[in-house]
Amino acid sequence: MSFYKNKALKITCIVSLIMICFVYHHYLNTDTKQIKFGTTYMTMNNTFYKAVNNEIENVVNNHGDVLYTRDPALDPKKQNEQIKDLVSLGIDVLIINPVESSSINKTLKEVKKAGIKIIVVDAPISDDQIADCTVVSDNYDAGVQCAKDMMQRFDHARIALLEHSKALSAVDRINGFKDTVALNENYQIVGSEDCLGQTELALPALNKIIQQEIDFDVVFCLNDPTALGALASIKENDLGHDVFIYGVDGSPNIKKLVAETKAIVGTSSQSPTSLGKETIKVAYKMLHHKKYKRSIIVPTKLITKENIEEYDITGWQ
Length: 317
What we know:
Order of helices and strands: HEHEHEHEEHEHEHEHEHEHEE
Largest sheet: 6 strands, parallel
Pfam families: Peripla_BP_4 (PF13407)
Distance between the termini: 70 Å
Transmembrane segments: 7-27
Keywords: Membrane, Signal, Transmembrane, Transmembrane helix
Shape: elongated
Oligomer: single chain
Family: Belongs to the bacterial solute-binding protein 2 family.
Subcellular location: Cell envelope
Helix content: 40-55%
Radius of gyration: 25 Å
């Protein structure tokens, strides 16, 4: 009997040890605490930001952590309020794509004082010392790429610009384009309008330039939604000559139009999947006290009819 008693005692001890380990792992070990992430993008009325967020969400879910996502719909006041709400939910990391580059700074300083990590994605803030890390595309080069391609295709051009003056990413793209053509008198900027990067605002913005009887044959757009609005405006107005459009993003809609139409010449492609992956990767590095870069720049590449076959036109790259 003593043999069986000893065996039963050993089994009991083993089971008890397993239970103790289970309780420790799930309830006492702070390493298994769910991490809370908050994201707010300038607008979710753009599949680009949905693609960025999907990459972040996939990784967060795989870690068993929590993601709260907010949409300020291009309202800087609303974005400030959403950030405060995310802080009240106990987030550990704030991932922000700012509606405006400077109006958010005061709120972000409060977030930083609360010990919350801040990662800025796609569009930088005016005071980059506030952010723990900034992850952006090479926006300036995106504009340079479009300008260089235009100059190779056309001996001269009169150019209209569709801008978003309060988003630094958009400003960098426009500046890249303008700086590239600045020293060549064959290429003239003849008009510009702000459209917040939105399709529905780009159409009337270009209409306004047309109504001023400004003659142009190229439109450089800060992003692809703007390029769609520009195309709608060109179709709506009988200008009597061809107008060629450049965008920035590499969105599925524009890639299809690059392949199938004459008007959309090219788009300098961003990779929202890469931006999302880099953002969440650096977030976990921060939380696990690993080394990380404070600035991450993801390259862009021009997509035109000559290389469109290298890309999947049904999705983002």
